[in-house]
Design goal:
- The complex is a heterodimer.
- Chain A has a domain of 224 residues: Roll (Dipeptide-binding Protein, domain 3), CATH 3.10.105.
- In chain A, 31% of the residues lie in helices and 20% in strands.
- Chain A has 18 helices and 18 strands.
- In chain A, strands 12-16-11-15-13-14 form a 6-stranded mixed β-sheet, sandwiched between helices. Chain A has a 5-stranded mixed β-sheet with strand order 7-8-9-1-10, covered by helices on one side. In chain A, strands 4-6-5 form a 3-stranded antiparallel β-sheet, with helices on one face.
- In chain A, helix 10 runs antiparallel to helix 13 and helix 17 runs antiparallel to helix 18.
- By secondary structure, chain B is an all-alpha fold.
- Chain B has a domain of 186 residues: MetI-like fold.
- Chain B contains 15 helices and no strands.
- Classes of the chains: A alpha+beta, B mainly alpha.
- Chains A and B meet through strand 9, helix 8, helix 15 and strand 15 of A and helix 3, helix 4, helix 6, helix 8 and helix 13 of B.
């Protein structure tokens, strides 16, 4: 019943999803045209490997997704939604049985891998088992997303059954992971590392050629099981890590689209130069700028000091101003703003740092600092050597903190040393990002759990109370109660203990050539990348 | 001459071993962990087991001494191992990027020689005239302007000019094709980076040519040649230019070696998938094996270029080989 209620919220979520596309594609549906080659830019050097099960970078998703199928996915026609899941390889979205602990998926018949062999439930089960329960020596960074999962079985060639340890609303979003590509079991059995260097799936495009660090090419799969798709004859992804190159390539039509996102200035520049030849889609991004004080360093072991840091930051005004120059826009809690589990605005006003009256908030911050004996505190903010939005947010934070008398400097490190410094606890306060693919708040907040539980929590703190709150939310299937529990968890993390300072949610801006049709923006650059529904109007 | 060559070649080996040791130690002193970049880069909440599996897979959980011995043994066998990031042999990773870097380096060198030696010579011959002033201004501008800025400006100018003329902005393709597959496309890709790099390169060589020529033109043997009544063209070409080329050859050799691994920013600007961009990527990813191999590759090229320059010296100036 509760599950029915949760997923009857699909419409609600879909509505919210539609809202987040600030500038969307034309409202009237157009008839897709067949043919053409889509040239798109991948803002990276190259994927480390082709194996989506082992990699976490979008470079792998943008390279490999067009060649693979998944069991379920976020609806490609409504990717802005956080709850609208649809079948890719299954025939229809099942209803769970056994009090929500058994999910039985029927697999489409007649689906073929690109080598001509049939795809069966055994291939689906083998692939998902590899992700959820990686064998010895197999790397799977997403196994932690399946903590509710007990077993995956292919009961017959057309049926896959998932048995859960406990019912959880986090299961479907975890299953809809855009990296959960279905591989051929026979290949995995023979060489579990084969897919690291090779591509062979059952997706809308067949692998053509990969030029290391240069380009990936695919051609239309005529046997694709979604009728009429894909519309394109071929795809051509070009790796272009430098932003100026990508903007220039779009301007000169060397490429039609870059799916990750560009800063506001690039959007404005392209619109100014090309007018209606450029279309823009925008969305909140499932990436949040998060500040973590190191609890192992004084005075950040004191909740009053941490709360003061949060109270000093005027997110409402900051969001408005920063969104003009940086990829951030929405002030919200640690739950993705468009998700049904996200607190209401009234609830948000109760949390430190989100008060309506910033003067009152800063006065309270000063009082707390005085009480904690930390007036005129000086510290260093550790940040990452990436312009968007780290440097912009970092500079703004320093200015905000100066308004309560804090003297803060910024230490900017490249990615490797940045992560190493966090792990070694070599920082006072760090500004990082919490980014995910499918919006799955119960899993996405894992980095906020006690350090002994989450290896990504560099705050060096243990807090059994908050762990228990999330655990309850994880096991709760009633959406109203679950939402309340998530609010309690958020308030505890962001206010009572102020373990983490949620600053602003990132904002995804994708400008592209107007002749590209059919693509719809989602809250993550990992999603909706199989390119099956894209067509060219030229 | 043969003894000189053998002596110079033998000196290459201790240089390479020293560089290998240094790069191995320096890579491990940089804080960071390739597995954290790989697992944590995408925001996934990975487990401790996943981290341990990653460490074991690429062997960085082994003691440094063992890793070093493996590296040196691999070097001795000319086996540089596999990239920790992609799992592919590093030789393959470098070989894929080498042709474009080499092509740009050769094109830039040719542009530089074609511009620097005639202009540098003319500047010296017309010392303190308006021609000399113009050439010096041109060369100082080349030295003062960073190549990457010049590259960005070159692309923007091409875009703006083509937009103004045709209404549709144009820029060279950004996906490389080899010269033998599509020469026109290839040259349109290589043209702008070669010109922007070649300009700076020419500026250095031009100044060197000018000052060397001025020095040589004041030598006694030039005065003697003039006194003998030799024609001016013969004096310059046969006696002055050849001797003035000694320092110029050194500069050209050093610059060429630099171009093979040092086009870090320029390759980014033009989206050139070359050795310089690979170097940035390998350092960013903390890919020890690939970075070590790339540094060794660049060191080898520098050492080889120096060797060639030394041998050219000996050919150009008999006093060197006889000493």
């Amino acid at each position: 019943m509760a599950f029915g209620l949760r997923y009857s919220l699909i419409g609600f979520g879909a509505g919210l999803g539609a809202l987040i596309a600030a500038i969307g594609p034309p409202a009237l549906a157009e008839t897709p045209k067949r043919g053409g080659t889509l040239t798109y830019l991948i803002p990276a050097d190259a994927p480390p490997t082709f194996d989506g099960h082992r990699e976490t970078t979008f470079a792998t998703a943008h390279t490999g997704a067009p060649f693979y199928s998944v069991l379920i996915r976020i609806n490609p026609e409504n990717p802005g939604s956080t709850t609208d899941f649809t079948c890719d390889l299954c025939t229809e979205m099942p209803k769970p049985t056994d009090d929500g602990t058994t999910w039985t998926f029927n697999i489409r018949q007649g689906v073929k891998f690109h080598d001509g062999s049939p795809l069966t439930a055994a291939d689906v089960a083998a692939s998902l088992n590899r992700i959820a329960f990686p064998p010895q020596g197999i790397l799977s960074p997403r196994s932690s997303s399946f903590e509710m999962l007990d077993k995956i079985e292919a009961t017959d060639p057309n049926t896959v059954v998932f048995r859960l340890k406990f019912a959880s609303t986090a299961f479907l979003p975890a299953l809809a992971d855009p990296f959960a590509w279905v591989y051929k079991k026979a290949i995995l059995d023979k060489d579990p590392h084969w897919y690291e260097k090779n591509i062979m799936g059952s997706g809308p495009f067949k692998f053509d050629v990969f030029e290391t660090g240069q380009a990936i090419k695919g051609v239309r799969n005529p046997d694709y099981y979604h009728k009429g798709q894909p519309y394109l004859d071929a795809i051509h992804g070009i790796y272009a890590p430098k932003q100026s190159t990508r903007v220039e390539a779009l301007r000169s039509d060397r490429a039609a689209i870059e799916f990750r996102g560009m800063p506001p200035a690039s959007r404005d520049e392209l619109k100014k130069d090309l007018g209606d030849k450029i279309t823009v889609q925008e969305s909140d991004w499932n990436c949040g700028s998060v500040v973590t004080p190191n609890h192992a360093k004084k005075p950040f072991d004191d909740a009053r000091v941490r709360r003061a840091l949060s109270l000093a930051v005027d997110r409402w005004k900051g969001a408005e101003a920063l969104s003009k120059i940086a990829n951030v826009r929405t002030a919200a809690s640690i739950v993705f703003p468009a998700d049904p589990l996200s607190p209401t605005k009234e609830q948000l006003y109760e949390i430190a740092g989100f008060w309506r009256d910033i003067d009152k908030s800063r006065a309270e911050a000063k009082r707390l600092l005085k009480e904690a004996g930390a007036e005129n505190l000086s510290f260093e903010l550790l940040s990452r050597d990436i312009d968007q939005p780290y440097k912009y947010v970092g500079i703004w934070l320093i200015d905000e903190w100066s308004k309560i008398g804090l003297k803060v400097t910024q230490r900017v490190l490249p990615s490797g040393p940045f992560i190493a410094a966090q792990r070694a606890g070599d920082f006072a306060v760090v500004q990082a990002a919490n980014c995910h693919g499918v919006v799955n708040p119960l899993i996405d907040v894992h980095p906020y759990l006690s350090s002994s539980i989450s290896k990504q929590n560099y705050g060096n703190y243990e807090d059994p109370k908050q762990d228990e709150l999330l655990n309850k939310a994880m096991h709760e299937t009633d959406p109203v109660k679950q939402k309340q529990l998530m609010f309690q968890f958020s308030k505890h993390v962001m206010d009572t203990e102020a373990h983490k300072l949620m600053i602003l949610w990132w904002y995804r801006i994708v400008p592209y050539r107007s002749y590209v049709k059919g693509w719809k923006i989602s809250p993550s650059h990992y999603l909706n990348q199989d390119l099956a529904n894209i067509w060219l109007d030229k | 001459m043969y003894r000189y060559i053998i002596k110079r070649v033998l000196l290459v080996f201790p240089t390479l071993i020293g560089a290998a040791t240094l790069v191995f130690i320096m890579m491990r002193l940089i804080p960071g962990d390739i597995c954290l970049v790989r697992l944590g880069g995408g925001g996934t909440s990975f487990t401790a087991q996943a981290l341990a599996t990653c460490h074991a897979e690429i062997g960085i959980n082994r003691p440094w001494v063992l890793q070093f011995l493996d590296f040196m043994w691999g070097l001795a066998r000319l086996d540089l191992g596999n990239s920790m990031w992609s799992g592919k042999p590093v030789v393959m990773e470098i070989a894929t990027r080498f042709p474009i870097s080499l092509e740009i380096a050769i094109a830039a060198t040719l542009i530089s020689i074609a511009v620097a030696i005639p202009l540098g010579t003319i500047s010296a011959l017309k010392q303190n005239t308006w021609i000399d002033l113009a050439v010096r201004t041109f060369s100082i501008a080349g030295l003062a302007t960073p190549s990457f800025w010049l590259g960005i400006m070159a692309i923007l100018i091409v875009l703006d000019v083509t937009q103004a003329i045709s209404g549709n902005p144009w820029m060279p393709p950004i996906d490389y094709v080899p010269l033998w597959q599509d020469p026109i496309r290839n040259l349109s890709i290589v043209m702008l980076p070669a010109l922007t790099i070649g300009y700076r390169y020419a500026a250095v060589s031009m100044r060197m040519t000018r000052s060397a020529m001025l020095e040589v033109l004041r030598e006694d043997y030039i005065r003697t040649a003039r006194a003998k009544g030799l024609v001016r063209k013969l004096i310059i070409n046969r006696h002055a230019l050849k001797n003035a080329m000694l320092p110029v050859v050194t500069v050209i050799g050093i610059e060429f070696a630099f171009l093979m691994g040092g086009l870090v920013v320029t390759e980014q600007v033009f989206n050139i998938n070359g050795v310089g961009r690979l170097m940035v990527l390998s350092v960013q990813n903390q890919d020890y094996t690939l970075t070590q191999a790339l540094v060794m590759f660049v060191v080898t090229i520098v050492v080889m270029c120096n060797l060639v320059v030394d041998l050219l010296y000996a050919w150009l100036d008999p006093r060197i080989r006889l000493a």
